[in-house]
Amino acid sequence: MGKKARVLLIAACACAAMAAFVLFGCSSGSEPAPEPAQPAAEQTTESSEAQAEQESTEAETSEAAEDSSSAPATEDPVELQLFAANSLSEAMNAVQELYTQDHPWVTFADTQYEGSGTLNELLGAGSYADALITASKSTMDTAVEEGYVDETTRFDMFKNDLVIVGGEASDLTDVALEDLATGEYTLAVGDANVPAGAYAKQALSTTDPACWIAADGATGSETDGKEGTFDGTPLEGKVTEGSSVGNVCSYANSGDVDCAIVYSSDVYRYGGVKVLSAVPADTHKPIVYPAAVCTVSENAEAVEEFLDWAYTDKAAQQVWQEYGFELA
Description:
The protein has helices at about 5-30, 40-70, 90-100, 115-125, 135-145, 175-180, 195-205, 245-255, 265-270, 300-310, 315-320, and strands spanning about 80, 80-85, 105-110, 110-115, 130-135, 155-160, 160-165, 185-190, 215, 230, 240, 260-265, 275-280, 290-295, 325. A six-stranded mixed beta sheet has the order 4-2-5-14-6-15. The chain has a five-stranded mixed beta sheet with strand order 11-8-12-7-13, sandwiched between helices. Strands 1-3 form a two-stranded parallel sheet. By secondary structure, the protein is an alpha/beta fold. The protein is about 45% helix and about 20% strand. The termini are far apart. It folds into two domains: about 80-160 and about 290-325, 3-Layer(aba) Sandwich (D-Maltodextrin-Binding Protein, domain 2); about 160-285, D-Maltodextrin-Binding Protein, domain 2 (3-Layer(aba) Sandwich). Helix 3 (about 90-100) runs antiparallel to helix 11 (about 315-320).
């Protein structure tokens, strides 16, 4: 090949190489350059933050659902009618007031406070009540037997004690149970419809000589304290029987009698009397206040909730104790 031909060949190869370079460069420049990879630590941080945000959202959703489920449902108004032993009146009124503050949809009709036997008579005559609270097991036993209450709801709420009291203005300072057997003192006790009277007569039948004798001639703490007599005892002609513990206290307060036997809680409730002595607990049956829902109740669930609250709530318990009642 001649010198001229070789020069032309070299020039042609150079042009071809230049064209290929230009073509490759244009093609490469049209594609976007890849983004630089994030550092591993930065990726981990962002992932953790996202996970934490998701968990926080889930927790808030769960708490909101829990708050919604625990929030009290709107309650329908309900009025409760209670029949309760007379000795409970002051304390029960205070407890009911506390309950309505926390349960504004609940109101209480005029609670009937009577001797426990009288309450049973009212129920037997067709009177309506949602719940019954008596001052003795025997009167609640009668309510169960007569079908006035639902036995499955029955439970013991309170305990009480007996004391001998005199009027605050009285000169007497210390009169024990045995002192009554001397016949030197006049006395007031509850009648056959008042459990406090039955307990008092049980105690009086244990003195020597006995100051009360059961209808069957029995004496002692296991008598029923209902059917019997003071005749032929040191207290014959010296006893006034009251239809309620309030009446019994008033006889002592007014000076109509020298002494009265009442519940220790009555001293807090009525005032105007002073304690002369405590009646020994082993001279009478245990003083227990049972409660139960009445079979005619149209608000059984609501009244059962109230009874449970009245027995377990700390503020309610404090009220009972302030009025001299001990929880059973």
